[in-house]
Design goal:
The chain is α/β, with parallel strands linked by helices. The chain has eleven helices and 13 strands. The chain has a five-stranded mixed barrel. The relative contact order is 0.06.
Length: 407
Amino acid sequence: MFSFLNPSAEFDRAVWTVGELTAYIREMFELDYRLQDVEVTGEISNFTRAASGHLYFTLKDATAQIKCVMWRTQAERLRFRPTEGDAMTARGRISVYEASGAYQLYAERLQPAGRGDLAAAFERLKEDLALEGLFDSEHKQPIPRFPHKIGIVTSVDAAALRDILNVLRRRNPLVSVLIAPTLVQGEQAPPQIVRAIKWLDGRDDVDTIIVARGGGSIEDLWAFNDERVARAIFNARHPIISGVGHETDFTIADFVADLRAPTPSAAAELAVVDLSDMPPVIEEYKRVLGSEIDHALATRREAIRARAQFLGLLNPRRAVDANRQRIDGLVGRASRAAQRTLDRQRSRLDISMAGLTAVSPLATLARGFAIVRDAEGSVIRSTDQVRPGDAISIQVSDGTIGGRVTE
């Protein structure tokens, strides 16, 4: 490589290699201090962002153009997205890219021409996020009226934290507070704010999150205009209240949050109800709740009464009682039927007895007849059955007479 400060006889050679000539020209650019810190204004064209994060674009005007490159480390500091056709002012140094033999501007800073860098970045990011729907009301979550624990994302040294704690203590001393400390200003603030939001949002014991800091300039509040912070707020599953700056200050976080408060103190007021205002409300709730309970009890009593009546119809005791009465009726009928049958049989028996009596030997005996039997008890029907001297018995109506045959 040649040195411009140490010319040698080699410069007098008639033939140069391409590499030698290009390196010499690059040194010429780099040794001119006026080209090492320049600001160039023009319109962006051929803008591309490489996978590596580096930005490549061209600045042009009506008469000329210059290629530009911005390395990823500088590009990550941009607070807006350059787009095709934007009028920009780039600040950096001029050098030669030897591989292509083209001189180009190595930009270290880029800002919209004719406007403040931060204001333009704010409007550009606000427009992009609005188009994505991050500000839409349909994504806003309701703020719990009676939270048990509130998470706070802010600096532990900030007056905003003291204001929030004082308001919470005055309005609702029963609520718990969990603080996620973070920087709220500077380049390191956005990633810390994102981590704090995600840490609180990952807990199940937090009901509401407050993201807050006190007032300041647009530069002081810029951490809350960071796209990473906006997306962390939008993706949170817990409702978030933004209380950044003063009443006239607006940040991207305000638009994305579920509720915007004009100040940190106002954010605390919106996060909890004032318990001193609750007695009349509680009495009204008691009245309404008592009325609803009475109505519910009356409705359930009536339902129980109807079910009891229905169950009464299904009670087996009713069937048992009915069967008992039916059995009593059947028993009565059976008893009467048996009695009638018995009476008929008795009548028949009396008739039979009368008939038997009429033909009974006893009846014959009662009329003066007698029955003669031999010693063995056999009835003697003929004289041939006895001989003189045989013992006989004579049965009359009222007894028996012993005797002996004489002839």
